[in-house]
Amino acid sequence: MSSYGDVLAWADARLNNGAQARRLLEDAAGRSITWLLAHADDLAPDDLRPQIEDWVQRIQWGEPEAYVTGVTHFWKLRLRVTPDVLVPRPDTETLVELALGLGGAQPQRVVDLGTGSGAIALSLAMEKPTWQIVGTDASEGALDVARRNALDCALSGVRWYSGDWYQALDQMRFDGIVSNPPYVAADDPALSDDVLKYEPQGAVIAADDGLADLKTIIGQAPDYLNARGWLAVEHGYQQAEPVRALFEAAGFVDVGCKRDLGDHPRVTFGRLR
Ligand SMILES: C[S@@+](CC[C@H](N)C(=O)[O-])C[C@H]1O[C@@H](n2cnc3c(N)ncnc32)[C@H](O)[C@@H]1O
Among the atoms of ligand 1, which is closest to the Cα of residue 137? Predict the structure, then answer.
């Protein structure tokens, strides 16, 4: 029999990471850390300690925390994640922030290409209730996760379509396109990173030095945008120059690049005339 305080102290000692230990306890107990600390001496349910022991062991073996607990936080949302989706990264919030600014105050129709967990589409829907948001993905497993997140976040106005990039959209046209596509080259040493090893490779790796999907998305964007429509894409920090050239070749103007939280050039954007 352990108290909540005992379980927290055990996890903290094993992980040597107090913040992570607190997050695990919150997710396993379904209680806020404020409640847990106020009830530190109460006896925890019998299954809590074995659950935390299992999670700590999996994390120590290298499994990403979000896949272990099935939950992550992005923007202001609590999102479910499964191995069918990439774990949304804090850096991608730079793309959300930029898209909100590009869209401005007017109602917009915006598509998130390669939505995964729905992180970008749902963040935009939460911030802009007047926008019509569409999310697409080639993976049915990912779209199931996105649909479930939409229900959990009470953002059921977002529409989801399945298919290979623009093929999912038929004849639709948009005021804005946003995408965080796969952009890691197959021989990138970053792929030995523990987290990337667990993630769906189709969400991470792209042919042509990581540029193949960016080429498709940028090159075909004008066919799916209204006049003055905008496009914003996330890419690797060494891809800013080739991506700018792709925007210019596709006819975009006012092309710019925003830096991520680590001060790397990671999000390129532009507008049609
Ligand atoms: C880097 S992940 C981004 C996921 C999510 N938007 C995010 O930022 O966390 C790329 C997503 O693109 C999807 N994808 C890969 N190839 C695709 C294709 N040909 N057509 C549509 N989606 C594709 C993957 O399934 C994956 O969900």
Answer: 22
pTM value is 0.95
For the domain 71-271, what is the CATH code? Answer: 3.40.50.150
Name all residues whose Cβ lies below 6 A of ligand 1.
85-86, 88, 92, 114-117, 119-120, 136-139, 142, 164-165, 180-182, 202-203
pLDDT digits (tens, 9 = 90+) for 163-194: 999 999 988 999 999 999 999 999 998 887 76
Q: Which residues contact 147 (CB under 8 A, 6 or more apart)?
A: 118, 160
Q: Tell me how far apart the 2 most distant CA atoms of the chain are, in Å.
A: 68
Give the distance (Å) from ligand 1 centre to CA of residue 145: 13
Which pLDDT tens digit goes with each residue over 121-131? 999 999 999 99
Alpha-carbon gap, residue 150 to 20, rounded angstroms: 26
Domain borders along the chain are 4-61, 71-271
